[in-house]
Amino acid sequence: MSLFNPETVTCNGETFSIYLTQQELEERVAELGDELSSKYEGKNPIFIGVLNGAYIFLSDLMRQVDIPCEVDFLKLSSYGDEKVSSGEVTDLKDIDADIEDRHVILVEDIVDTGLSMNYLVDKLQKKNPESIATVTLLHKTEATHHDVQLDYVGFEIPTLFVLGYGLDYAQEGRNLAQIYILDSDPKE
Ligand SMILES: O=P(O)(O)OC[C@H]1O[C@H](OP(=O)(O)OP(=O)(O)O)[C@H](O)[C@@H]1O
Ligand code: HPA
């Protein structure tokens, strides 16, 4: 267990409470790893992680996958330092790998409005992969209003701002080992 597992945390002046424990995260990530290992046996998939948020989930997920696989990263930004999407995606880094005819597993930490995932699937499709599957640790089901293809979802969560395990609030809180949820609705 991490030594950094408080029940509540304060980040940028706002209070968050525990929502998903380290054990719940570990168990679900292991299940997803098993599913992917079976599905992609013999296919040498390439995991593509979306920086920054997905880096912790992706590193844990890949260590639960027991078949040959590769990894690359791209970087987007749409939230800046805010709790609501700017509504625009900014490309900050593309992948280096050639994914033509490859089996791609696109890994996000969270699908909220769906804007980023929708944008990314379109962007990667243009590189002619053999297949694209999407994985997200968290899905804010009721907040998603863009069309998204979601193949593997860790947890469906309510429309409340979350923090930890890679997810930030104005760049802080990514190093928390568990997932925390804002004590009041950010839209109120
Ligand atoms: O479904 P959406 O409304 O598009 O929200 C999801 C996106 O927002 C976050 O990225 P962010 O822009 O905050 O960058 P970060 O990963 O560096 O924190 C998250 O990592 C997803 O990429
Ligand atoms: O709830 C959230 N928390 C952190 N980052 C995010 N990016 C989209 N939604 C969220």
TrEMBL record:
Broadest EC class assigned to this enzyme: transferase
Cofactor: Mg(2+)
Keyword Nucleotide-binding on entry: yes
Gene Ontology molecular functions: guanine phosphoribosyltransferase activity; hypoxanthine phosphoribosyltransferase activity; magnesium ion binding; nucleotide binding
Compartments where found: Cytoplasm
SUPFAM superfamilies reported in the protein's UniProt record: PRTase-like
EC number: 2.4.2.8
Every Phosphoribosyltransferase domain range: 19-169
Pathway per the UniProt entry: Purine metabolism; IMP biosynthesis via salvage pathway; IMP from hypoxanthine: step 1/1
GO biological process, one term: purine ribonucleoside salvage
Assigned GO CC terms: cytosol
Catalysed reactions, as listed in the record: IMP + diphosphate = hypoxanthine + 5-phospho-alpha-D-ribose 1-diphosphate; GMP + diphosphate = guanine + 5-phospho-alpha-D-ribose 1-diphosphate
Keyword set, alphabetical order: Cytoplasm, Glycosyltransferase, Magnesium, Metal-binding, Nucleotide-binding, Purine salvage, Transferase
Keyword Transport: no
InterPro entries: HGPRT (IPR050408), Hxn_phspho_trans (IPR005904), PRTase-like (IPR029057), PRTase_dom (IPR000836)
Family listed: Belongs to the purine/pyrimidine phosphoribosyltransferase family.
Stated name of the protein: Hypoxanthine phosphoribosyltransferase
Organism whose genome encodes this protein: Fodinibius salipaludis
